[in-house]
Amino acid sequence: MIHKKKFKLKDFPKLLAQSYVQWNKHDPWRMSAIVAYYAVLSLPALLVIVINSVGAIWGRDIVSGRLTSQISSALGSDAAEYIQGTVAQTQGSGNSLIASVVGIGVLIFGATGVFFHLKISMNEIWEIKLTKQLSFKRIFLDRVISFGFVLVLGFLLLISFLLTAVLSIFSDFILSILPVFVVYVTWTIDFLLSFGVISVLFALIFMYLPDAKIKWSTVWSGAILTAFLFVIAKYLLGYYFSIAEPGSTYGAAGSIILFLLWISYSCLIFFFGANFTKVCATYYGDGIIPYENFSRVRKREILIDRNGNQSENRQKEE
């Protein structure tokens, strides 16, 4: 029976250190580059589905404008205009029924690509391997789950928009009473709203995207840390892109380069959070249980004694 430990604040530095070791071991730069590449391919389809789903309630023009504003604050106005133009071309009208049906299928397949490859990366980080060939039904189900995350993203975006609208009205009320503190109050509430929405998204990804079962208590520890780092990084990256302008060197391709860099840096944070979740699951005895047709990767270590003799130690699956 595995002895389970209780969380103590003094364990946090140790958990972070172990998470960094695990994060560095899995080559996060390579995995981030892969996800960023598929994110570029998925971006138009992802935005079209989110705009149409959320726009059905909120209004497409309003949703498109708010997304453009968010992208502009993170990547700059040029990147926002490029992405807006790409979405407008994707939503072009005048197609036949067959072309429209095929187009919808391509959109769904493209939009799920980034989540599908996040799933592959998380399986690698959590050291889960496939032991039996998956059926077509299971592969199709994986795509359905990935598409579910696209809809969840749209739903959380809708909640974020609604809360932001309420915050705007509330801020106007505060401005008429306490003009000195309104800026700080608004910024704090906006930070907490972003933090809450992103925490829920990361928790759902950690819980349902990989091919393994993990306890909610462990999931929330990783999701909250990842969301905190992500929100902080969003402001830092926005400042960095506005000052350094790393995409200016690439001319017309600068917008794509900025998007690739933003996704890559964000994935580095996400993968650190995934490693932190894994470390917490192992350290506190909750463990990560693979689904059917999957198993944990057995680790092999070469031990060297004082005399220089080598021996192999095969650890048990966690």
Helix content: over 70%
Shape: globular
Instruction: Give the structural class.
Output: mainly alpha
Which sheet architecture does the biggest sheet show?
2 strands, antiparallel
What letter string, H or E per element, gives the SSE order? HHHHHEHHEHHEEEE
Number of strands: 6
Straight-line distance between termini: 12 Å
Radius of gyration: 22 Å
Count of discrete structural domains: 1
On the 0 to 100 scale, the average pLDDT is 75
Indicate the low-confidence ranges by residue numbers: 300-308, 310-318
Strand order of the largest sheet: 1-4
**Count the helices. How many?**
9
- Proportion in β-strands: 5-15%
Short description:
The chain is mainly α and 318 residues long. It has helices at 12-25, 28-58, 60-75, 77-90, 97-125, 136-175, 182-208, 216-244, 254-283; strands at residues 128-130, 212-213, 289-290, 294-296, 300-304, 310-314.
What can you see in these coordinates?
By secondary structure, this protein is mainly α. The protein has one domain (29-271, 286-293). Helices cover 72% and strands 6% of the residues. It has 9 helices and 6 strands; from the N terminus they run H-H-H-H-H-E-H-H-E-H-H-E-E-E-E. The protein has helices at 12-25, 28-58, 60-75, 77-90, 97-125, 136-175, 182-208, 216-244, 254-283, and strands at 128-130, 212-213, 289-290, 294-296, 300-304, 310-314. The protein has a two-stranded antiparallel sheet with strand order 1-4. Strands 2-3 form a two-stranded antiparallel sheet. Strand 5 and strand 6 form a beta hairpin. The longest helix is centred in the middle third of the chain and has 40 residues, at 136-175. The chain is globular, with a radius of gyration of 22 Å.
